[in-house]
Amino acid sequence: MSQAIRNASRHVSRNEGLIFEKSSPGKRAFDLPPLDVPSVDPAKTFGQKHRAEGVTGFPEVSEIEVLRHFTRLSTWNYAIDIGMYPLGSCTMKYNPRVNELVARLDGIATEHPFQPQSLSQGCLKIMRLLERCLLEITGMDALSLQPAAGAQGELTGLLLIRAYLETQGNARRKVLIPDSAHGTNPATAVIAGYEVENIKSNPEGQVDTEKLRELVTADVAALMITNPSTLGIFEQRIAEIAAILHGKGALLYMDGANMNALAGVARPGDFGVDVMHLNLHKTFSTPHGGGGPGAGPVAMKKFLEPFRPIPVLVEKPGGELSLEQDRPYSIGRVKAFSGNFGVLVRALAYILAYGPGIRQATEDAVLNSNYIRKKLEGVFALPYSLPSMHEVVFSDAIQKSNGVGTMDIAKRLIDYGFHPYTTAFPLIVPGALMIEPTESESKEECDLFIEAMRAIAEEASSEPGLVAHAPHATRIGRLDEVAAARKPRLRWSKEGSS
Amino acid sequence: MRYLPKSPAERNEMLAAIGVQSIDDLFSSIPEPFRLREALKLPGPYSEAEIIQYFRERAKESSVSYTSFLGAGVYNHLRSVVTDTIIQRGEFLTSYTPYQAEISQGTLQAIFEFQTLMCQLTGQEVANASMWDGSTATTEAVLMAERITRRRRALVARSLHPEYREVLKTYARNSGLEVEEIPFGLDGTLNQKTLESALRDDVAAVVVQSPNFFGVMESVATLADRAHSREALLVVAVTEGVSLGLVKPPVEADIVAMEGQSFGLAPSYGGPFVGVIATHEKFVRQMPGRLAGQANDRSGRRGFVLTLAAREQHIRREKATSNICTNQALCALAATVHLTLLGKEGLREMAEQNLAKAHFALGELEKIPGVRRAFEGPFFNEFTVELPRSVDSVNRQLLREKIIGPLALDAFYPELTNHALVCVTETTTRAQIENFVSEVRLAIALAREPR
């Protein structure tokens, strides 16, 4: 290993098999209080449908073994709690622990979605206050907290657009999506019943407004834009874009994945956006948890309000809050019950911690990304030179000449004690290195990251093989993903995984 | 601000390094008219103590001192402190989707174990990790059946959770899928005669829930035969996973859509929970959602990776099997830890206690004059009774005694006036059941008296 690595060392982590491999009949890790009513014979109740043998293959282990098993597994993970996690587009920021505590309080975690609303005022007040905060941050008029994640927020938003256009007499056929967009955008448009038409970005990485003018016909329902774009660049002609769409009766949808660049600084409601979603697990710090859960609230302008998914939170005369199910123009229900409520609690706790100071978080996020950009410019190629906001996208063009690609650099970064940046996205940058530090990184951590990136760039020319075969310090090397996909083993079985 | 790790001096140093005068210069790309000049009107900033105080106050305006007999897709079960201890480890809590396998083996192996547990429970060959909840899993299962069969009709039991049916309809509306409801018979299960006449060669899927919304077991094997005779798929939704500790898994189903809330997740006013789709291996490439698979590195060491990503939106974009990206990974981990703790015997015992307590409660309720069981057929921990009075009037009385009564079914099924869906789990004590029954008796008697 290179001597240049000064912020990471190898350490011992225990090996651990699958839990099923540790099982031995008769062990258990959970006891119930004794049954205080007469027992019922399941064989008699269920007859042929009785599972007399129990769940075949279920583990039988003790409590200490369960705790150690999962603790050992946990030590094989990288996490924000360990260090910088500069995944572009993912906004991996600090997850405050007080948010975890309040989401678990009795009276919050214990509440049933079908309990009487008179007993749910605490939960509903939390939802109400969160709605108000998100409306203030986005500058929009109405909100739904129902969607379970960003992708479901997108779908909800497009269904609102469709419902509105239907009342105008024509739902239209197409949704326009820039080629720099997240993959969820086109996938969502299809579920909403729209054809996808991609718009090529202009040489500056922005939406080509001339092209847009041609493409926006009476067939177009909406443009789904990400602003700042996935290049981390603000769409400078956003007002013109909105005007082009509105001029033809189409609407502007904004993917709010990058709101961490805007909170407290600019509001989508002010620059022409009709409907947008937020990712509470990005901008508002609810933990990613290895892939979820998230929440994808949808904010909209007044004219879309009647179409909101049910249930809709309303304030009755006298101040009592209520979830209304009967809404004649609603697009319907997108998820059972009342949204990912526990995630909403955490997001509100985050916002309350900052208050108006949320602007400072945004400023620090933009400061960090520009600092990194400045220090790495020239070392890595910068395909688009407009000012960066919360993230910066380089390419591997310089390193490629030595046969070192973005994935290799990313894997080598692991040896330096960092999680990789986002590789190979956005699609309009071949060999992209998409870096989003967030506001949670100190200058020291940014400097260590910059030092690591510079060292790797150096290695890419002096010792390209070292980078191409990274990582070297991890408990396993690069896994053969091609073989794994060709003959998938997706579960353990006694006879050997099949 | 305590979450921000920079001093004013460091900020200035960084600005100087970038070569700008002030932080505002970094926002120059936002057109002038859109730059906020005033501070947002948000409550805060709050200290940690104030945040806790705010939520403690909200938590008081709740059902916390009440006994509840609600289920209907969200169940109260015992949870071990070990589960919460594990999922609050920062290495799990604050990690991203495990795309970088070399430093995500903890999450990946746990997902692989989750997939295995879900297969063992459901009797299916493969299971994903994960969907947003049971309602969206059921919807995605139907869309998957549509892709597999290339047919455009779904026959959905009216005894499927009403909110699940509504979610399905929202999604179906624009995907060209026609959703037709099949009524339930006098026994509360799907009416097979109606099914037979609706089942033609254009049906992609027959969709049932078992135990169904009324708590009654559906005849999965028979329904599978019927569906298969027309080359349609059978989708079985499971909202109460603990039942699988005692009940034969729906092996005859082609796709199982399960809600995993019962496995260690708090009711949390409706989420976050965890949905799962389990199916036959031959359908795996039509399955939505993430999958972890076993793989080896160059030295032959076993590890796990996200696999078959060619189904997913980040690769396939508009041709993906679903738009799902962020899922419910941490909830899936909680379910994995919880089920590992329970193990084979613990799950069986928990299921047996549910069975016994629900049957005890029904027996006691049936002793009240005018109360009768609405649907015959085996049930697990939920059952439907018909009361001689409106359920709402009884529940209002119960509420005064700090009891949250059963779900009034007429909110979802206008034809089921005076019908109540009662849920009793292992968390309810005999004394609580007896108190509930005597309060129901009293409420009915009170209501009978002339005012």
Give the tags.
heterodimer; A: 498 residues; alpha/beta; Aspartate Aminotransferase, domain 2; Aspartate Aminotransferase, domain 1; 3 domains; seven-stranded mixed sheet; three-stranded antiparallel sheet; 33% helix; B: 451 residues; 2 domains; four-stranded antiparallel sheet; 37% helix; 14% strand; globular
Main sheet: strand order of chain A: 1-7-6-5-4-2-3
Order of adjacent strands in the largest pleated sheet of chain B: 2-8-7-6-5-3-4
Task: Give Rg of chain A in angstroms.
Answer: 25 Å
**Based on helices, strands and strand pairing, what is the structural class of chain B?**
alpha/beta
Q: How many E strands of chain B?
A: 15
- CATH fold-level name of the largest domain in chain A: Aspartate Aminotransferase, domain 2
Written overview of the protein:
The complex is a heterodimer of chains A (498) and B (451). Chain A has 498 residues and is an alpha/beta fold. Chain A has three domains: 1-76, no CATH class; 101-356, Type I PLP-dependent aspartate aminotransferase-like (Major domain) (Aspartate Aminotransferase, domain 2); 359-482, Aspartate Aminotransferase, domain 1, CATH 3.90.1150.10. Helices cover 33% and strands 10% of the residues of chain A. Chain A has helices at residues 42-46, 63-74, 97-103, 121-138, 150-167, 184-191, 209-215, 238-247, 341-354, 358-376, 397-400, 406-415, 443-462, 464-468, 481-486; strands at residues 142-144, 174-178, 195-199, 220-226, 251-256, 275-278, 298-300, 312-315, 321-324, 392-395, 422-423, 432-435. In chain A, a hairpin with a 5-residue loop joins strand 8 (312-315) and strand 9 (321-324). In chain A, helix 4 (121-138) crosses helix 9 (341-354), helix 5 packs across helix 6 and helix 10 (358-376) runs parallel beside helix 13. The radius of gyration of chain A is 25 Å and the shape is globular. With 451 residues, chain B is an alpha/beta fold. Chain B has two domains: 67-76 and 343-448, Alpha-Beta Complex (Aspartate Aminotransferase, domain 1), CATH 3.90.1150.10; 81-338, Type I PLP-dependent aspartate aminotransferase-like (Major domain) (Aspartate Aminotransferase, domain 2, 3-Layer(aba) Sandwich). In chain B, a hairpin with an 8-residue loop joins strand 11 (372-373) and strand 12 (382-386). In chain B, helix 6 packs across helix 7. The longest helix of chain B has 37 residues, at 329-365. The N and C termini of chain B lie far apart (62 Å). The chains are: A alpha/beta (498), B alpha/beta (451). Chains A and B meet through helix 1, helix 2, helix 3, helix 4 and helix 5 of A and helix 1, helix 2, helix 3, helix 4 and helix 5 of B.
